[in-house]
Design brief:
This protein is of the alpha+beta class. The protein has helices spanning about 15-30, 75-85, 110-115, 150-165, 210-225, 250-255, 265, 285-305, 340-350, 355-365, 405-410, and strands at about 5-10, 40-45, 50-55, 100-105, 135-140, 175-185, 190-205, 240, 255-260, 310-315, 325-330, 385-390, 390-395. Helices cover about 30% and strands about 25% of the residues. Strands 1-6-7-8 form a four-stranded mixed sheet. A four-stranded mixed sheet has the order 4-3-2-9. A three-stranded antiparallel sheet has the order 5-10-11. Helix 4 (about 150-165) packs across helix 5 (about 210-225) and helix 9 (about 340-350) crosses helix 11 (about 405-410).
């Protein structure tokens, strides 16, 4: 018996993604001033208007607390994000050069700060979790990046759409766009083939329908579809290209955008569970973000080590408490060599330190590394080292498979079961 599963993705010009990118630009700007910065930032965008609200604490170059009296040029960050996403003309409904920007950022709650901060001297304690909650990390061997196939292909489609617009391969494209991919799976939950592809692309007025469909199919859709998931060619796939017809009015002009409304796009396309907390706009003391990154790191390494074909790592925290109150692995019955979920859970606890301070250290999350995560998904991206503010930082450090050997040793896996995965 076959079954179907569908995931979607969106471009960086989608209104919710604009909001995510603005919020993460604020996080990075604060962290550039010092690793002690704290941010919980929400963004709303609509026609010719952006509102940035929340709480923050930044450090100046001398390391002093800056509280809510921030010297950051938030409107400049907003405008740059809009322009980088392609909103450069008033006819798009919002222009990064001229839109109205309202900033309402207050000082971080001193009660939260007291619960989270490590303190000094006799009051020293481990850095506590910035909130309570549960976080999930997922990995599977469906794709080279150890991501579910539907979200992997959905991301490839919108990346191709964005690239075609930015490089002017399709000059009539505008910034907003969405994709959706339906896969057929077998009883073993292995992806067999792509069944349906939906692509909606914002465009200039008066583009003939035939030209729109032809150029999108040839330059965006077909190059993004992996041949291994097209066993009979793409003639067996149902395609819906701009199925609503005209899509001229889009972005924040077509729909208001808010931070955190694309959490399924940000993660596993619905294939893995989600704790409910958004990522963008939060520094790494907020375990909604850092805990989810650490859980993905652990799940990815488990699958790369050959410990399971598919697994989900769940963490849970109490606010102000460093140690997670739960660490558990669900392998969905795919654990290798007679291993149990309890075995995998014990190994993960042994190999990974899930205290927030350790996650921040091990993944380099006290640096300005978050803005690149805010479009095209937080997971399944190639880790890379870049220069930020005179220092080398690791982008997507949670995608490294650098604990494979430790997990294999903890689980006593035969060497033949250890899988080498790039990253």
């Amino acid at each position: 018996m076959s079954r179907l599963f569908t995931s979607e993705s969106v471009t960086e010009g989608h209104p919710d993604k604009i909001a995510d990118q603005v919020s993460d630009a604020v996080v990075d700007a604060v962290l550039e001033r010092g690793p002690g910065g704290r941010v919980a930032c929400e963004t709303l965008v609509t026609t010719d208007f952006a509102l940035i609200a929340g709480e923050m604490r930044s450090e100046d170059t001398a390391g002093g607390a800056n509280g809510g009296e921030h010297p950051l040029d938030i409107p400049r960050l907003v405008r740059k994000t809009m322009l980088d996403a392609g909103y450069t003309r008033s006819e798009y409904g919002i222009d990064g050069q001229t839109c109205q920007v309202l900033v309402k950022l207050d000082r971080q709650s001193p009660e939260i700060a007291a619960a989270v901060d490590p303190g000094e001297g006799e009051d020293a304690k481990p850095l506590g979790a910035g909130d309570q909650g549960m976080m999930f990390g997922f990995a599977c061997d469906d794709t080279p990046e150890l991501m579910p196939a539907p979200i992997s292909v959905a991301h490839a489609l919108v990346r191709g759409l964005s690239r075609a617009r930015r490089e002017s391969d399709i000059p009539w494209l505008r910034p907003d766009g969405k994709s959706q991919v339906t896969f057929e799976y077998g009883d073993d939950w292995r992806p067999r083939r792509i069944r349906t592809v939906v692509l909606s692309a914002q465009h200039d007025p008066d583009i003939p329908r035939e030209r729109l469909e032809s150029e999108l199919m040839d330059m965006v859709v077909r190059p993004a579809l992996p041949q291994r998931f097209l066993p009979g060619g793409d003639g067996q796939v149902t395609f819906h290209i701009n199925p609503s017809g005209s899509f001229v009015r889009g972005g924040p002009h077509g729909d208001a955008g808010l931070t955190g409304r694309k959490i399924i796009v940000d993660t596993y396309g619905g294939f893995g569970r989600h704790g409910g907390g958004a990522f963008s706009g939060k520094d790494a003391t907020k375990v909604d973000r850092s805990g989810a990154y650490a859980a993905r790191w652990a799940a990815r390494n488990l699958v790369a080590a050959g410990a399971a074909a598919r697994c989900e790592v769940q963490l849970a925290y109490a606010i102000g408490v460093a140690e997670p109150v739960q660490v558990w692995v669900d392998s969905f019955g795919t654990a290798a060599g007679g291993l149990t979920d309890r075995d995998l859970s014990h190994a993960v606890r042994e190999v990974f330190d899930f205290r927030p301070e350790s996650i921040i250290r091990d993944l380099g999350l006290d640096a300005p590394v978050f803005a690149p995560t805010a479009a095209f998904g937080h997971f399944g991206r190639a880790p890379r080292a870049v220069k930020r503010g005179g220092r080398t930082v690791q982008l997507f450090g949670w995608e490294r498979t650098n604990r494979v050997d430790d997990l294999a040793a903890a689980l006593k896996l035969p060497s033949r079961e250890v899988v080498s995965v790039a990253g």
